[in-house]
From TrEMBL:
Region (Disordered): 310-347
The entry's keywords: Membrane, Transmembrane, Transmembrane helix
UniProt protein name: DUF6534 domain-containing protein
Species name: Dioszegia hungarica
Cited Pfam families: DUF6534
Biased composition (Basic and acidic residues): 320-331
Membrane-spanning intervals of the chain: 31-50, 62-85, 105-122, 134-155, 175-200, 221-239
Ranges of residues in domain DUF6534: 185-269
InterPro entries documented for this protein: DUF6534 (IPR045339)
Length: 347
């Protein structure tokens, strides 16, 4: 229930009507587009989440927990956005004051702070390098992003029921808004560069086929990370100049992070998608850890012991994973010879 006197609310409604009626295409259309984009991305999230279900039993529990958190969180964000759009364009049709209500955007930002799953990407980078330094490098920026987001909600939005010129002129509001955008840019850039560099390290130069596979994998990982980085840059540029045009990008941020996580995990394939001989598209087969004869194909599983690749390229006999005591490995085919190489933990 609003604490603003009815007379002041009527004056604010008249001011909002004058502002939004001046150019409806520039002021209202971005909000309408944000709802459409969110619904579209939510459908893709559901599709990717269904594809990921085949890995629930084999993935580590903390990865499954982060996936569940991300999907549930972004679903809650979509419910908030859907209710907001219903109020704007159905129940409150013909009124304009709700376009400036802060409660719905504050609720979305609260969910956004919990579903920007930077912990997942930090975990991926640390397992890729098998070292703690990626977490030490990226972790403080990720924690800072979450903390500043919470402060932004408490200081920038909580004291106000509606967006006013007083709120926009508040130095704390501007400082926190640009701090969030800056930290997101730095964090996303560090994650992208760290993961791409980690994958690039595994390019052997031994055979064109191996380098081609890893090159495609680098491109796929970069493509999964790029949208989140682009959204952070656009938000930083447009926040104070024309926020209505940045609004659809800000609204889609939770979906982009969750989709990037799901797409990265779904680069793998199940045993049913590999051929009976163990050869799969791309030439890399990741073998299961259980004693049952199963073959998991994935282009996201990387080679750790590259000297083994050279042995396979020289036509030496196939290495038996059981004899070597390594059942967590990658199967790489070079013409008529085949060879096993262990993958980094977590990939």
């Amino acid at each position: 229930m609003s604490t603003i006197p009815p007379e002041q609310l009527a004056a604010m409604e008249a001011g909002a009507a004058q502002f939004f009626s001046r150019d409806k295409g520039a002021s209202i259309m971005p909000l309408h587009s944000a709802g459409f984009i969110d619904s579209l991305l939510m459908g893709i999230v559901i599709t990717e989440a269904c594809r990921y279900c085949r890995f629930v039993r084999t993935d580590r529990k903390h990865i499954v927990a982060m996936v569940a958190l991300g999907v549930v969180g972004t679903s809650i964000a979509s419910v908030f956005i859907l209710l907001w759009m219903q109020i704007l364009f159905v129940w409150g049709f013909g009124t304009y004051l709700d376009f400036g209500a802060t409660r719905w955007f504050a609720r979305y930002m609260s969910v956004n702070a919990g579903t920007t799953l930077l912990a997942f990407y930090i975990d991926r980078a640390s397992r890729l390098f098998q070292h703690w330094w990626p977490a030490a490098l990226i972790g403080p920026f990720a924690i800072g992003t979450c903390a500043v987001s919470i402060a932004f909600i408490r200081v920038g939005y909580a004291p106000y029921e509606y967006i006013t010129f007083e709120m926009l002129a508040n130095p704390a509001y501007k400082a926190l808004a640009y701090s969030i955008c800056s930290l997101c840019i730095v964090t996303d850039l560090l994650i992208t560069l760290t993961v791409v560099y980690g994958l690039f390290r595994f390019k052997t130069g031994c055979t064109p086929a191996t380098d081609s596979i890893l090159g495609r994998l680098i491109i796929q990982i970069f493509e999964a990370q790029l949208p989140a980085l682009a959204i952070s840059v656009i938000s930083f540029i447009m926040w104070d100049r024309a926020f209505q045009f940045a609004f659809p990008f800000v609204i889609s941020q939770t979906k982009i992070y969750v989709l990037g996580m799901l797409i990265t995990l779904n680069l793998r394939s199940t045993p049913s998608e590999s051929s009976g001989t163990g050869t799969a598209v791309g030439g890399i087969d990741a073998h299961a850890l259980d004693p049952v004869t199963k073959t998991y194909h994935t282009e996201s599983h990387l080679m750790k012991d590259l000297s083994e690749v050279e042995r396979g390229a020289k036509g030496q006999p196939e290495v038996n994973a059981k004899d070597e005591g390594d059942r967590d490995s990658i199967h790489i085919h070079y013409g008529s010879t085949s060879h096993l190489s262990p993958r980094p933990e977590g990939w």
